[in-house]
C-alpha cells in the first residue's frame, strides 16, 4: 500500500523548532550547567601554541595576496584536509561527552553548524589573533582552511592534542550552546525540509562571476504553499538557508502549531516505543544497574522486583511483580525524562 503524502510537519521536527526558538528545553540547560558551570571555556593553551605557527604553513593563498585567484597552496590545503578530520572528531567528542546532543540526528544537525566555514569566519580573528590581526574580515572558505591547517600543525606539537580539544570545547560552547540559548536556529534549511517545507535557489541574472549573487526561495508547506520567503546570498546554499531562516523566524509559530503529519502513525510509533521501552533504552546506550532486576519481596510474599535504569547521568527506578515489568517501567520513566516521548 502506498503511504499517504505528507500533509504537515512531523511532531519531532516541531519539537526541534520549539526548542531552538525558545532557547533549548530544560534538560538541555541542565546539561549545559553540568558540563560548563558558570564559567566560559578559555583558549589559553590553544592561543599559546597557535601563536608559534609560521604564517606560510597555514595561510591560504588568498590571505597572502588579495589579487591572486582563490586557490590555496597544495601544502596548506592538504594540512587543512587532515585538520578538518581532526577538528571534526574533537567537536563531535565534545558534544557527545557533554551530552549536548542525544541522538545522531541532533548530533549531525549541530555538527553542520559548529563545523561550518561560516562559524569559522565568525571566530577566526579570536582563535588566531596572531595571524588575523585587527579583527580582519576573512571570507568563509579561507577562514575554514586557515583554522583547519592550524589545527593540523598545532596537533603535531607537544601538548597539541590538548590545545585542539580546548579549541573544540570553546567552539561548541560559543556556537552550539550560546546559539541555542539565544534562540538561534541550527541548520534552518534542514529543519524546514523536516517541517514539510521546500527551498530552492537560482542565480541573479547579470551578476558577475566574482560577485555572483543568488536568490533563495522558501515555501511552506511544500504542497499548496501558504507562506513564501526570499533572501539573497553569495551562493545557492547560503541563499536557500537564509530564506529558510526567514521563514522560521517569521512564521515559526504558525508552523509549530500546524497539525502534525500523520498523527495516528506518530501515536503508533510512540506506543511501540512504550511496549519495548527496555530494548529501546538499551539501543540508545542505557544500562540496567546491577545487571538485572532484583527480587525485594520476603519469602512467602507475592514476588516483587525492582529495576534501576541509567542513561548518562540520569537514573530511574521502578518496582513490579515481574522482572520484565520492572525493567520496562523503569525504562519508560527514564525515556520520558530524557525526552524520547515528547511530542
UniProtKB/TrEMBL annotation:
Q: RNA-binding: is it a keyword of this entry?
A: yes
Domain of life here? Eukaryota
UniProt domain DRBM: residue ranges: 299-340
Gene3D superfamilies (alphabetical): 3.30.160.20
Cited SUPFAM superfamilies: dsRNA-binding domain-like (SSF54768)
Q: Which UniProt keywords apply?
A: RNA-binding
Which InterPro entries does the record cross-reference, listed alphabetically? dsRBD_dom
One GO MF annotation is: RNA binding
The protein's name in its UniProt record: Double-stranded RNA-binding domain
